[in-house]
Amino acid sequence: MNSDLLPLLLQGTGETLYMILLATVASLVIGLPLGVILVVTEKGHIMESSQLNKVLGTIINIVRSFPQIILIVVLLPLARLIVGTSLGSTAAIVPLAIGSAPFLARVIESSLKEVENGKVEAAQAVGARPIEVIGKVLIPEALPSLIRGTTLAIIAITGFTAIAGAIGAGGLGSLAIRFGYMRYRDDVMYSTVIILIVMIQGVQLGGELLAKRIDKRRHKLG
Amino acid sequence: MLKAGVRKPDEGTAEPFEKGTTWNMITVTGLSKAYITPYARVQALKNVSLKVETGDIFGVIGFSGAGKSTLIRCFNRLEEPDEGTIVIAGNNVTSMNQNQLRLARRKIGMIFQQFNLFDSRTVFQNVSFPLEVAGYSRNKIRQRVGEIIELVGLTEKAKAYPSQLSGGQKQRVGIARALANDPDVLLSDEATSALDPQTTYSILELLQDLNRKLNLTIVLITHELDVLKYICNNMAVLERGEIVERGTVKKLFLNPESDTARRFIGITESFHNHTVYREGEGI
To answer: A103, A126, B19, B266: which has the highest count of C-beta atoms within 10 A?
Structure first.
């Protein structure tokens, strides 16, 4: 085992976690409102607007049709504008968030659509405003499903960070390419893969536990 | 205790409907509604007019697809009527903008066949929802929710979630939620259709009780003649979007005029006879 292995892995893991965390938060900030708008502007829903719905749906589909690696390159100038640099992990967060938000918006849309329309009508029937229907009914009712969807998005973002790493964003993906692949450092390669597996398992398990806990509270017997 | 709306002139009389009160809680005039589907235009309601007296329990009966649900959902504009006016407690519901409608809806409670309770909220929180929306203080909400869940007999279940309740208990929560804002009118959209006969009667008894205690005007739609017979005073028979018969429930049984009414009575009787017969056989 080489003596530089541990510091490399520590730095890579740190950078990856940093990117995942901030990209997740940012894509939630963008994706949650988008997902909500997609649902409530649908025909027959509380803020029906088929035009807005179509425009938004089209934009989301366009962003989603970009291959991730292309999207990162295309969005780097924007990253310089927003975070002041087009290098490293911080710069990668901008394309990561913009690339993941449309996916998250779609996941959130499908979760919110699971809420029975009757519940929305019951809220409207007592005089709830659209914002109250969203905040007090749609989101709380869909919460376990929203958590599972967000878990899915975090895992997708993790994969996305590895791609970003390959073109200079740092993190475990970068380590695997630069050391594991290009310098034949098998120890780096295996270690990064193991760390990524552990991370994904952790996220999946954590999300599932959280969602189950809410489900259980709502369905406990007694 | 609950306070009945001050706007009701006949407040306090035990059975206002039998004393010939003329004050109408609901006046529907010339209501029409059509659904446009890709394949056809379905006329759900055709020029429907009716009046519901204050403190009455008014039933609308009809077979599936007659337009009952559309009719009652027009009352609080969950469905938008194409034509006609609906006046509830002196306010023209059909001419209101969204803000006015939201305020008016607080005074028009509604209960549903599928209960439509919020699974993310406890019984207490379900009942407090309309009060939160209306902007009451926390203390006021706690006090009011306490009163109302006692009224429907669910005090012990305040902390339970809907998934832990039976169908009848769920509908009691639905009723409590609908009454939280002390409405003038309760609209019941097939509220007992998902319940077994025994639970149906306990819910109907509760509705009757609330009608008496609060002088609450109730409009219910149903496809079950027994429900009509059990609690309604006045009724209308709906067939293909039109009212084909109206009057007191007594008159409907003694002297049915429309084919639809006769069919209803015929079906119900043959069903009952059939049941008795089979029981006699010991099956």
So the answer is: A126
Task: Provide the chain B residues 10-39 that lie in CB contact (below 8 A) with chain A.
Answer: none
Candidates B24, B45, B18; CA nearest to B34 is B45
What confidence tens digit (pLDDT) does each residue in A175-221 have?
998 998 899 999 999 999 999 999 999 999 999 999 999 999 888 75
Q: Do A125 and B76 touch (CB under 8 A)?
A: yes
- Using a CB–CB cutoff of 8 Å, tell me whether B170 touches chain A: no
Alpha-carbon distance B16 to B1, whole Å?
21
Instruction: Count CB neighbours of B95 within 10 A.
Output: 11
Architecture of the domain delimited by A11-219: Orthogonal Bundle (1.10)
CA distance A99 to A31: 10
Confidence bin at A87 (pLDDT 50/70/90): confident
Answer yes or no: is pLDDT of B269 > 80.
no
Identify from A43, A126, A219 which residue to disrupt to test chain B contact, counting B C-beta atoms within 10 A and taking the largest count: A126
Query: In chain A, what are the domain boundaries?
Result: 11-219
ipTM: 0.90
Alpha helices, DSSP H, located in A84-138: 88-113, 117-125, 130-132
A113-133 confidence digits (pLDDT tens): 999 999 999 999 999 999 999
Residue B204, helix vs strand vs coil: helix
Distance, in Å, from the CA atom of A36 to the CA atom of A45, rounded to the nearest integer, reads 11
